[in-house]
């Protein structure tokens, strides 16, 4: 590009013509680039999404509009196959109008659909969190999508009469336990990650078909030492090798002390083993004193 600009300045030609005439870019690819930039300038398409579609169009030798459709980024119906959007439509807890507005905002600003709905107060963050957990459980084969839809509809319709929140009813009715959920709840409970960041990462994990661990690692929003400790604790929690309270305590100690998790686990085991012995000594003293 630097060379093309230099040639254009020295010859009085345009950068576009220099790139095309030198064989650096084809006419159709340049047309796709102009179409992409036009949609970005109109505020319809987020620049990052435009780059993805442009890359696909150039690699597959297709029209830019076709690339947008293939990637689910067509302005006429953005994110038409988005799993969260389809699920919310089935549940009926969010209006179709709000979902449509959120789709278009997500397309133009590079947001996730769920976070756009939260920003518009169309859904409560905690309910969105549990619905995303449900979708992750479906992906992991823990529950079926039909079971999730049925339970969610029942929870939304009867939560008020049951004096419970919809998310509480969903957690009670469905087996949502996954390593992803253990990691997510551990980081949220310890205050290491804010719920808005977590909701974003959960939805990205769903859209990209990745684990929550992989997405959190990609975004690097958690200190490396704390993140690795949390991942290990979450795996132990999912395997019922440790209690949620112990996880939270250990993660807090890891955050404040800087000691390795292995040392903290050893300390916890030693303290746990010393407790029965201490109770036995105290019992003997009580008997002796009676």
Description:
The protein has 290 residues and is mainly alpha-helical. 73% of the residues lie in helices and 0% in strands. It contains 17 helices and no strands. Helix 3 (27-41) runs antiparallel to helix 4 (47-60) and helix 9 runs parallel beside helix 13. The chain starts with a helix and ends with a helix.
Shape: flat
Beta-strand percentage range: under 5%
Helicity, as a percent range: over 70%
Q: Could you tell me how far the N terminus lies from the C terminus, measured between alpha carbons in angstroms? A: 92 Å
Rg measurement, Å: 26 Å
Q: Kindly state the number of beta strands.
A: 0
Question: Which helices and strands occur, and which strands form pairs?
Answer:
Blueprint: H1 2-11, H2 15-21, H3 27-41, H4 47-60, H5 64-70, H6 83-91, H7 96-109, H8 113-119, H9 125-139, H10 145-158, H11 166-173, H12 179-189, H13 195-208, H14 212-219, H15 224-238, H16 244-257, H17 261-289
Brief account:
The chain is an all-alpha fold and 290 residues long.
What descriptors fit this protein?
290 residues, mainly alpha, 17 helices, flat, disordered C terminus
